[in-house]
Write a structure and sequence with these properties.
The protein has four helices and twelve strands, in the order αααββββββββββββα. By secondary structure, it is of the alpha+beta class. The chain is elongated, with a radius of gyration of 35 Å.
Protein backbone atom coordinates (compact mmCIF):
# COMPACT_ATOMS: atom_id res chain seq x y z
CA UNK A 1 0.00 0.00 0.00
CA UNK A 2 1.41 3.39 -1.05
CA UNK A 3 2.15 5.91 1.68
CA UNK A 4 0.40 9.28 1.62
CA UNK A 5 2.16 12.62 1.50
CA UNK A 6 1.46 13.26 5.20
CA UNK A 7 2.91 9.86 6.13
CA UNK A 8 6.05 10.61 4.18
CA UNK A 9 6.40 14.01 5.90
CA UNK A 10 6.08 12.33 9.31
CA UNK A 11 8.58 9.63 8.37
CA UNK A 12 11.06 12.19 7.01
CA UNK A 13 10.89 14.28 10.20
CA UNK A 14 11.38 11.21 12.36
CA UNK A 15 14.43 10.12 10.36
CA UNK A 16 15.95 13.58 10.66
CA UNK A 17 15.54 13.49 14.44
CA UNK A 18 17.18 10.06 14.59
CA UNK A 19 20.08 11.28 12.42
CA UNK A 20 20.59 14.21 14.78
CA UNK A 21 20.82 11.88 17.79
CA UNK A 22 23.28 9.58 16.00
CA UNK A 23 25.52 12.55 15.11
CA UNK A 24 25.54 13.63 18.77
CA UNK A 25 26.61 10.12 19.82
CA UNK A 26 29.32 10.04 17.13
CA UNK A 27 30.85 13.23 18.52
CA UNK A 28 31.77 11.30 21.68
CA UNK A 29 32.33 7.86 20.10
CA UNK A 30 34.18 8.62 16.87
CA UNK A 31 35.47 5.04 16.37
CA UNK A 32 32.10 3.31 16.75
CA UNK A 33 31.57 1.49 13.44
CA UNK A 34 27.92 0.68 14.25
CA UNK A 35 27.04 4.36 14.65
CA UNK A 36 28.87 5.22 11.42
CA UNK A 37 26.91 2.58 9.50
CA UNK A 38 23.63 3.77 11.05
CA UNK A 39 24.44 7.37 10.08
CA UNK A 40 25.05 6.41 6.43
CA UNK A 41 21.83 4.38 6.33
CA UNK A 42 19.74 7.23 7.76
CA UNK A 43 21.21 9.72 5.28
CA UNK A 44 20.33 7.36 2.40
CA UNK A 45 16.76 6.90 3.72
CA UNK A 46 16.29 10.66 4.09
CA UNK A 47 17.52 11.24 0.53
CA UNK A 48 15.20 8.62 -0.99
CA UNK A 49 12.21 9.74 1.11
CA UNK A 50 12.74 13.36 0.03
CA UNK A 51 12.87 12.36 -3.65
CA UNK A 52 9.71 10.25 -3.31
CA UNK A 53 7.95 13.07 -1.49
CA UNK A 54 8.83 15.53 -4.25
CA UNK A 55 7.56 13.09 -6.83
CA UNK A 56 4.21 12.62 -5.06
CA UNK A 57 3.71 16.35 -4.43
CA UNK A 58 4.40 17.05 -8.10
CA UNK A 59 1.61 14.64 -9.12
CA UNK A 60 -0.80 16.23 -6.66
CA UNK A 61 -0.24 19.65 -8.22
CA UNK A 62 -0.85 18.24 -11.68
CA UNK A 63 -4.17 16.66 -10.72
CA UNK A 64 -5.35 19.76 -8.82
CA UNK A 65 -4.87 21.95 -11.86
CA UNK A 66 -6.93 19.43 -13.88
CA UNK A 67 -4.27 19.23 -16.54
CA UNK A 68 -2.35 16.42 -18.07
CA UNK A 69 -0.24 14.46 -15.63
CA UNK A 70 3.13 16.01 -14.94
CA UNK A 71 5.56 16.20 -12.06
CA UNK A 72 7.66 19.04 -10.71
CA UNK A 73 9.99 16.54 -9.04
CA UNK A 74 13.13 15.40 -10.86
CA UNK A 75 12.69 12.18 -12.79
CA UNK A 76 14.27 9.22 -10.96
CA UNK A 77 14.29 5.52 -11.79
CA UNK A 78 11.58 3.49 -10.09
CA UNK A 79 14.08 1.05 -8.57
CA UNK A 80 15.72 3.90 -6.63
CA UNK A 81 12.47 4.76 -4.87
CA UNK A 82 12.55 1.51 -2.93
CA UNK A 83 15.05 1.49 -0.08
CA UNK A 84 17.88 -0.94 -0.65
CA UNK A 85 19.39 -2.43 2.52
CA UNK A 86 23.09 -1.83 2.86
CA UNK A 87 25.25 -4.93 3.10
CA UNK A 88 26.00 -5.81 6.72
CA UNK A 89 29.62 -5.49 7.90
CA UNK A 90 31.72 -8.65 7.74
CA UNK A 91 32.22 -8.89 11.53
CA UNK A 92 28.44 -9.15 12.10
CA UNK A 93 28.40 -12.68 10.67
CA UNK A 94 25.48 -14.38 8.91
CA UNK A 95 22.35 -16.25 9.94
CA UNK A 96 21.93 -19.94 9.11
CA UNK A 97 19.43 -22.72 9.78
CA UNK A 98 21.58 -25.61 11.01
CA UNK A 99 24.28 -25.58 13.67
CA UNK A 100 26.71 -28.27 14.82
CA UNK A 101 27.69 -29.27 18.33
CA UNK A 102 30.89 -27.48 19.39
CA UNK A 103 30.52 -24.78 16.70
CA UNK A 104 31.23 -21.20 17.74
CA UNK A 105 28.63 -18.53 17.14
CA UNK A 106 27.42 -15.07 18.10
CA UNK A 107 24.20 -14.93 20.12
CA UNK A 108 22.10 -11.93 21.11
CA UNK A 109 21.60 -11.76 24.90
CA UNK A 110 19.75 -8.81 26.48
CA UNK A 111 20.32 -6.67 23.38
CA UNK A 112 24.06 -7.40 23.10
CA UNK A 113 25.92 -9.85 20.88
CA UNK A 114 27.98 -12.33 22.87
CA UNK A 115 30.41 -15.07 21.79
CA UNK A 116 29.33 -18.64 22.49
CA UNK A 117 29.66 -22.31 21.56
CA UNK A 118 26.73 -24.55 20.61
CA UNK A 119 26.11 -27.44 23.03
CA UNK A 120 23.01 -29.16 21.69
CA UNK A 121 19.66 -28.75 19.98
CA UNK A 122 16.46 -28.66 22.03
CA UNK A 123 12.73 -28.32 21.36
CA UNK A 124 10.73 -25.48 22.92
CA UNK A 125 7.54 -27.04 24.32
CA UNK A 126 5.64 -23.74 24.50
CA UNK A 127 6.11 -22.24 21.01
CA UNK A 128 7.17 -25.52 19.36
CA UNK A 129 10.33 -23.87 18.00
CA UNK A 130 13.75 -25.38 17.54
CA UNK A 131 16.10 -23.81 20.12
CA UNK A 132 19.86 -24.14 20.56
CA UNK A 133 21.58 -24.44 23.93
CA UNK A 134 24.70 -22.24 24.01
CA UNK A 135 27.54 -21.77 26.49
CA UNK A 136 28.75 -18.16 26.50
CA UNK A 137 32.51 -17.72 26.06
CA UNK A 138 32.75 -14.29 27.73
CA UNK A 139 30.59 -15.03 30.78
CA UNK A 140 30.07 -18.26 32.66
CA UNK A 141 26.45 -18.53 31.56
CA UNK A 142 24.30 -20.93 29.54
CA UNK A 143 21.43 -19.65 27.37
CA UNK A 144 18.88 -20.98 24.87
CA UNK A 145 18.33 -19.07 21.63
CA UNK A 146 16.40 -19.35 18.38
CA UNK A 147 18.30 -19.35 15.08
CA UNK A 148 17.01 -15.82 14.37
CA UNK A 149 19.11 -14.57 17.31
CA UNK A 150 22.29 -16.38 16.23
CA UNK A 151 25.02 -15.52 13.76
CA UNK A 152 28.22 -17.15 12.56
CA UNK A 153 31.54 -16.69 14.33
CA UNK A 154 33.86 -14.45 12.26
CA UNK A 155 37.67 -14.72 12.37
CA UNK A 156 39.30 -11.26 12.06
CA UNK A 157 41.60 -10.44 9.17
CA UNK A 158 45.34 -10.40 9.81
CA UNK A 159 45.55 -6.74 8.75
CA UNK A 160 43.02 -5.82 11.46
CA UNK A 161 45.37 -6.97 14.27
CA UNK A 162 48.30 -4.70 15.17
CA UNK A 163 50.89 -4.51 17.96
CA UNK A 164 49.60 -2.63 21.03
CA UNK A 165 45.94 -3.18 20.11
CA UNK A 166 43.31 -4.21 22.67
CA UNK A 167 41.54 -7.45 21.71
CA UNK A 168 39.59 -10.36 23.14
CA UNK A 169 41.54 -13.63 23.20
CA UNK A 170 40.59 -17.20 24.13
CA UNK A 171 42.40 -18.32 27.29
CA UNK A 172 41.43 -21.15 29.67
CA UNK A 173 38.20 -21.70 27.74
CA UNK A 174 37.01 -18.06 27.95
CA UNK A 175 37.46 -14.92 25.84
CA UNK A 176 39.34 -12.36 27.94
CA UNK A 177 40.49 -8.80 27.27
CA UNK A 178 44.17 -8.39 26.47
CA UNK A 179 46.84 -6.43 24.59
CA UNK A 180 48.79 -7.64 21.55
CA UNK A 181 52.48 -7.51 22.42
CA UNK A 182 54.15 -9.37 19.57
CA UNK A 183 53.66 -11.70 16.60
CA UNK A 184 55.45 -15.04 16.29
CA UNK A 185 55.75 -15.23 12.49
CA UNK A 186 57.05 -18.81 12.48
CA UNK A 187 54.00 -20.19 14.32
CA UNK A 188 51.52 -17.52 13.19
CA UNK A 189 50.54 -16.76 16.79
CA UNK A 190 50.18 -13.52 18.73
CA UNK A 191 51.61 -12.99 22.20
CA UNK A 192 48.76 -11.61 24.30
CA UNK A 193 49.09 -9.99 27.73
CA UNK A 194 45.77 -10.27 29.58
CA UNK A 195 44.62 -7.11 31.31
CA UNK A 196 43.05 -8.55 34.45
CA UNK A 197 45.67 -11.14 35.40
CA UNK A 198 48.87 -10.00 33.68
CA UNK A 199 49.43 -13.52 32.30
CA UNK A 200 50.78 -14.04 28.79
CA UNK A 201 49.87 -16.62 26.15
CA UNK A 202 50.47 -17.36 22.46
CA UNK A 203 47.08 -17.24 20.73
CA UNK A 204 46.33 -18.08 17.05
CA UNK A 205 44.36 -15.69 14.85
CA UNK A 206 41.20 -17.86 14.93
CA UNK A 207 41.02 -17.39 18.73
CA UNK A 208 41.11 -13.57 18.56
CA UNK A 209 38.24 -11.09 18.35
CA UNK A 210 38.25 -7.32 17.90
CA UNK A 211 37.26 -5.36 21.01
CA UNK A 212 34.16 -3.20 20.56
CA UNK A 213 35.01 -0.83 23.42
CA UNK A 214 38.71 -0.05 23.83
CA UNK A 215 39.85 1.41 27.16
CA UNK A 216 43.63 0.87 26.96
CA UNK A 217 46.17 1.86 24.32
CA UNK A 218 49.86 0.96 23.94
CA UNK A 219 52.46 1.70 21.27
CA UNK A 220 55.97 0.49 20.51
CA UNK A 221 58.59 2.81 19.02
CA UNK A 222 61.37 1.93 16.60
CA UNK A 223 63.88 1.21 19.40
CA UNK A 224 61.61 -1.35 21.05
CA UNK A 225 60.36 0.78 23.96
CA UNK A 226 56.71 0.58 25.05
CA UNK A 227 54.56 3.65 25.74
CA UNK A 228 51.21 3.44 27.57
CA UNK A 229 48.57 6.11 26.93
CA UNK A 230 46.13 7.33 29.57
CA UNK A 231 43.14 5.01 29.99
CA UNK A 232 39.94 5.83 28.10
CA UNK A 233 36.88 6.08 30.36
CA UNK A 234 33.70 5.58 28.25
CA UNK A 235 30.98 8.24 28.42
CA UNK A 236 28.56 5.58 29.64
CA UNK A 237 30.55 5.31 32.90
CA UNK A 238 30.12 8.96 33.82
CA UNK A 239 28.14 9.44 37.04
CA UNK A 240 24.77 11.16 36.62
CA UNK A 241 22.36 12.64 39.14
CA UNK A 242 19.59 10.35 37.88
CA UNK A 243 21.62 7.17 38.55
CA UNK A 244 20.43 4.80 41.24
CA UNK A 245 22.76 3.63 44.01
CA UNK A 246 23.24 0.29 42.26
CA UNK A 247 24.15 1.99 38.97
CA UNK A 248 26.63 4.32 40.69
CA UNK A 249 28.29 1.38 42.46
CA UNK A 250 28.55 -0.58 39.21
CA UNK A 251 30.07 2.38 37.33
CA UNK A 252 32.61 3.08 40.08
CA UNK A 253 33.63 -0.58 40.12
CA UNK A 254 34.17 -0.60 36.33
CA UNK A 255 36.16 2.67 36.43
CA UNK A 256 38.33 1.22 39.20
CA UNK A 257 38.92 -1.91 37.12
CA UNK A 258 40.03 0.20 34.13
CA UNK A 259 42.54 2.04 36.34
CA UNK A 260 43.81 -1.25 37.74
CA UNK A 261 44.35 -2.62 34.22
CA UNK A 262 46.19 0.57 33.30
CA UNK A 263 48.56 0.25 36.28
CA UNK A 264 49.27 -3.35 35.31
CA UNK A 265 50.17 -2.26 31.77
CA UNK A 266 52.49 0.43 33.16
CA UNK A 267 54.35 -2.17 35.24
CA UNK A 268 54.70 -4.54 32.29
CA UNK A 269 55.88 -1.73 30.00
CA UNK A 270 58.46 -0.63 32.60
CA UNK A 271 59.70 -4.23 32.88
CA UNK A 272 60.05 -4.58 29.10
CA UNK A 273 61.80 -1.20 28.86
CA UNK A 274 64.31 -2.12 31.60
CA UNK A 275 65.10 -5.34 29.73
CA UNK A 276 65.48 -3.40 26.49
CA UNK A 277 67.77 -0.87 28.21
CA UNK A 278 70.03 -3.66 29.50
CA UNK A 279 70.23 -5.28 26.08
CA UNK A 280 71.15 -1.95 24.46
CA UNK A 281 73.77 -1.35 27.16
CA UNK A 282 75.34 -4.77 26.60
CA UNK A 283 75.42 -4.21 22.84
CA UNK A 284 76.98 -0.78 23.27
CA UNK A 285 79.71 -2.11 25.61
CA UNK A 286 80.50 -4.92 23.18
CA UNK A 287 80.86 -2.54 20.25
CA UNK A 288 83.00 -0.14 22.31
CA UNK A 289 85.40 -2.85 23.52
CA UNK A 290 85.87 -4.21 20.00
CA UNK A 291 86.55 -0.74 18.65
CA UNK A 292 89.24 0.13 21.28
CA UNK A 293 91.05 -3.19 21.65
CA UNK A 294 90.48 -4.73 18.26
CA UNK A 295 93.18 -7.14 17.07
CA UNK A 296 95.54 -6.19 19.94
CA UNK A 297 93.47 -8.15 22.45
CA UNK A 298 96.00 -11.01 22.26
CA UNK A 299 98.81 -8.71 23.60
CA UNK A 300 97.13 -8.57 27.00
CA UNK A 301 97.59 -12.32 27.56
CA UNK A 302 100.20 -13.12 30.26
CA UNK A 303 102.54 -16.12 30.12
CA UNK A 304 101.84 -18.91 32.63
CA UNK A 305 104.59 -19.72 35.16
CA UNK A 306 103.95 -23.43 34.61
CA UNK A 307 104.54 -23.32 30.85
CA UNK A 308 107.08 -25.86 29.52
CA UNK A 309 110.13 -24.80 27.50
CA UNK A 310 109.77 -25.07 23.75
CA UNK A 311 113.01 -26.96 23.14
CA UNK A 312 113.04 -30.77 23.39
CA UNK A 313 116.22 -30.79 25.45
CA UNK A 314 114.73 -28.45 28.01
CA UNK A 315 111.39 -30.24 28.49
CA UNK A 316 110.58 -31.51 31.96
CA UNK A 317 111.57 -35.18 32.50
CA UNK A 318 114.15 -35.36 29.66
CA UNK A 319 117.86 -35.63 30.45
CA UNK A 320 120.98 -34.82 28.47
CA UNK A 321 121.40 -38.36 27.20
CA UNK A 322 119.13 -41.05 25.96
CA UNK A 323 117.89 -41.94 29.46
CA UNK A 324 114.92 -40.38 31.07
CA UNK A 325 115.19 -39.31 34.70
CA UNK A 326 111.94 -39.18 36.66
Amino acid sequence: MDESVNDLHTKLEKNKQQLKKVKNLLSSQKENETLKTLKRDLEQVIKLTTELLNLKEGKVVAYADDKSERSIAPSIPVNLVKYQKRKAPREWGEEKDKWKKGERCQVKVHGRWELGVVRRREQDTIDNKVMWEIDLLEKRLRVSAHKSRMRTYVIPLQKEISIGQEVKALHNGMFQRGMVEDLNKDEGRYRISFLRTGQQALVPLQDLQLAKFKTQKMSKDGKGFWHVAEPIIPKTLELKASDSQEQRTSKKKRRKQIRKEHNLLLKKAAQQNRRNNWQEFQLKIKKKSKKKIGIFLSTFKTKSIFASPKGLNQMVGRGHGSKIFL
